[in-house]
Amino acid sequence: MRTVAVVGTGLIGTSAALALTRRGLTVHLEDADPDAARTAASLGAGVTEPAEGPVDLAIVAVPPALVGKVLADCQRRGLARCYTDVASVKAGPRAEVAALGLDTAHYIGGHPMAGRERSGPLAARADLFEGRPWVLTPTPDTDTETLNAALELVALCGAMPIVMDAAAHDRAVALVSHAPQLLSSLVAARLENADETAIRLSGQGVRDVTRIAASSPGMWVDILSANAGVVADILEEVAVDLGETVTALRALQASDEGERRAGAAGIEAVMRRGNTGQSRIPGKHGAPPTRYETVTVVLGDQPGELGRLFGEVGALGVNIEDVTIEHSTGQQVGHVQLAVAAGVVKPLVTGLRERGWAVRD
């Protein structure tokens, strides 16, 4: 594959274009908003000049509701030999493509499981897809050339291909992406009119839960509109759990000891279910989850401090598996939580303290 057209230069389209240009491909950029395409081009994502003939692959990077319309226009123009899209919902666009009578032999649905809270070309990154799953949803009439082109695209972007049925994909993303987005927004919405004193007590827990609540509402309305029924089903199940949890919490305040025990058992049960579910999330490089120990280092708010810390951890021969930074409200310090293998905790703590770092017990 040497030439690609990216139609839609938002976060995903521009990130794919950046990854491809980095690998030496010629990328032609299109967008309904010419300024967005020019912005993407200025970032090094490609050129805005049309291709002289059909490109090897066209990536339709538009909201789910527009995939059919945009694909029809691309095929009418003979833009490419093969086509794919990157919409986060697959069954609806596939049905529309079939209803429009489009060429489905040279089209394959796709969805890279990557994103950010920010949107638009300026939020794009060439490494956005590295190590992330990229779902492909071929139909029985998808030809081998098209599947191979999509697989090559995934490889060039550093992602991991996963072939799925479109409906199964939509059920899966409703559970692991769409419902969590709404739940994060619901928790964050409780903070809208909260007392400032409460807000100042915000720690890493609420930051983790509400991080994706900063996402674009308009973008998510487009996504959820295409998968609303499945997401609603999941939230109904969550609502049942919430109702039972509320009942258990009320029971903890009861005067009857039996009720209090029942309430405690209810809370423990839902938290144990949560432990089990969380433990199933794949760990590093998609491997089974590994339990690491956490070493917390107090970090001053000076330029280069984080890099110096990482350098000294590396000099001690320790690999950092994950990192979280928690900022202290009203203070010029933060707490860096380093996830490391259990066997290296003691020498790491000793080594850092010898080098002058404040390590929390």
From TrEMBL:
Keywords: Amino-acid biosynthesis, Aromatic amino acid biosynthesis, NAD, Oxidoreductase, Tyrosine biosynthesis. Residues 294-361 form the ACT domain. Signal peptide: none annotated. Its EC number is 1.3.1.12. Residues 2-283 form the Prephenate/arogenate dehydrogenase domain. The keyword NAD applies. Transmembrane segments: none annotated. It is an enzyme of class 1 (oxidoreductase). It catalyses: prephenate + NAD(+) = 3-(4-hydroxyphenyl)pyruvate + CO2 + NADH. Pathway: Amino-acid biosynthesis; L-tyrosine biosynthesis; (4-hydroxyphenyl)pyruvate from prephenate (NAD(+) route): step 1/1. It comes from the Bacteria. InterPro entries: 6-PGluconate_DH-like_C_sf, ACT_dom, NAD(P)-bd_dom_sf, PDH_C, PDH_N, Preph/Arog_dehydrog, Prephen_DH. Pfam families: PDH_C (PF20463), PDH_N (PF02153). Belongs to the prephenate/arogenate dehydrogenase family. This is Prephenate dehydrogenase. It comes from Kitasatospora terrestris.
